[in-house]
């Protein structure tokens, strides 16, 4: 069994090379945080030359669509390669992009149970209030989740998993194969709700970036907050 630090290094190197091959330019840096069953991969300074041209022409939606299509094709390769090189049995892969910041984030959901070690909730953060604020923010975008799980991968990376958040019109769009259009509409909406919520005050630290993606088939939403380190 590989050590976690070795796994992080293995994943970081692999993703850098893969993206360089398929996008024409790899990220300047890749940071990996692991707390099973989740692996979060943060990419910095990642924008290919052709994407820069499209961005300069106000074609950010097209860049998002192209990346989503490419990631769809790469998912099975990533699963096979990381099973072989890092012994990670990946069930799902999700991705989101902050094109203005030239950053991106991948969420790998692994097969198997969560880590046995009890999750440490920061003592200076009101857990009940945090969960309630997540529910309230979700309700403004779609509906209050049937179930919410918050996982601290490290002191600067918070993953929020919500089940049962889709409303009927969204389900109908999914049934009619409008998933990409729905995703493109929901991303900025959820980001806006995060930054307009009280989550920063509850965290007692600034949210530097927020990323979202969905498993529409099983009605699950993922949100990752990257926050400043404690002063």
TrEMBL record:
InterPro entries linked = MpsC (IPR018745)
Report domain Na+-translocating membrane potential-generating system MpsC positions: 5-111
Q: Origin organism of this chain? A: Planococcus notacanthi
Protein's UniProt name:
Na-translocating system protein MpsC family protein
């Amino acid at each position: 069994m590989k050590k976690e630090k070795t796994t992080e290094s293995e994943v970081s190197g692999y993703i850098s090379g893969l993206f360089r091959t398929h996008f024409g330019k790899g990220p300047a840096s890749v940071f990996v945080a692991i707390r099973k069953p989740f692996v979060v991969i943060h990419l910095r300074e990642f924008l290919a030359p052709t994407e820069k041209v499209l961005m300069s022409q106000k074609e950010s939606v097209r860049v998002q669509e192209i990346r989503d299509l490419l990631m769809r094709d790469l998912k099975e390769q990533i699963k096979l390669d990381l099973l072989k090189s890092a012994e990670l049995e990946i069930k799902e892969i999700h991705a989101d992009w902050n094109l203005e910041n030239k950053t991106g984030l991948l969420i790998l959901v692994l097969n198997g149970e969560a880590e046995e070690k009890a999750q440490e909730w920061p003592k200076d953060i009101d857990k009940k209030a945090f969960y309630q604020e997540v529910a309230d923010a979700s309700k403004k975008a779609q509906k209050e989740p049937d179930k919410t799980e918050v996982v601290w991968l490290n002191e600067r990376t918070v993953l929020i998993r919500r089940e049962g958040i889709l409303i009927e019109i969204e389900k109908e769009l999914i049934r009619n194969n409008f998933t990409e259009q729905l995703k493109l509409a929901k991303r900025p909406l959820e980001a806006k709700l995060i930054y307009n919520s009280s989550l920063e005050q509850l965290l007692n630290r600034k949210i530097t970036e927020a990323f979202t993606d969905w498993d529409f088939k099983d009605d699950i939403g993922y949100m990752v907050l990257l926050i400043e380190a404690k002063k």
